[in-house]
Amino acid sequence: MDLKHDTVLITGGTSGIGLEMAEQLSAEGNTVIVTGRDEARLQRVRDSHPRLRAYRVDVTELASVQSLRDRVVADFPGLNVLINNAGLMQNISFPEAPAEGVADEVAVNLAGPILVTQVFLPHLLRQSASAIVNVTSGIAYFAFDKAPVYSASKLGLHSCTQTLRRQLRGRSVEVYELAPPRTTKPMFSGSEADNREVDRIPKMPVADVVSIMISGMRKRRYEILPGMSKMLRLMGKARL
Ligand SMILES: NC(=O)c1ccc[n+]([C@@H]2O[C@H](COP(=O)([O-])OP(=O)(O)OC[C@H]3O[C@@H](n4cnc5c(N)ncnc54)[C@H](OP(=O)(O)O)[C@@H]3O)[C@@H](O)[C@H]2O)c1
Fold it and tell me: What is the pTM of this model?
């Protein structure tokens, strides 16, 4: 992937790592489309980043993903890179957690990318060179006790990424995994108190994670594990 003249769709590109990917990839000459559920956040991206295109989607709903595919493919027939970045992380203690919402990370972080990939795959297979990037996490490999469902969902996505890569061997679609370590973007979705609890864990600047992803893809490194993620993967293997 030269990532200079490509057309890239990023799920969850209205903040954090996804927005940084959009900014860097757009600055490198690519056409970039970001997505999210919240229309106000999408409009803020359109206003502040006129070069980016922003579309609404909920990655957990088949009809919403199909409608996104229809709109994006009509507007950007050259779409050739899909980045499954939308994610959610909750602080869950099983003895206290209510059943409502406890499995949300499985829907957003695991079922979501599977659904989006499946809906966009026929289009990507028609391109002469294309790529799918699944964003997992360093704590896919070494389960984090404060986020057990998150870690499990990301380990599941890691596994799916490996099998998708094997199934697509010899086809036009390359399959990448980016496993960021803890970054300067707070980990837990929407909870300052939860994020303060984990403040001692070192943070990698989001911009560094994204530039490592871009250079890794240019070198065809299919598993991109910046910073601490490499160590977490080794520690996870030792724990098993
Ligand atoms: N932050 C870290 O330190 C860290 C570390 C390792 C891995 N990661 C992974 O990196 C990715 C990005 O993380 P982040 O912290 O940068 O995320 P973030 O800033 O919290 O942004 C999440 C994005 O996902 C979108 N989103 C959430 N649920 C969605 C749904 N059902 N359908 C469509 N879009 C949805 C959000 O938009 P709406 O709210 O508008 O839907 C938002 O654009 C995630 O997969 C995360 O697990 C993050």
Answer: 0.97
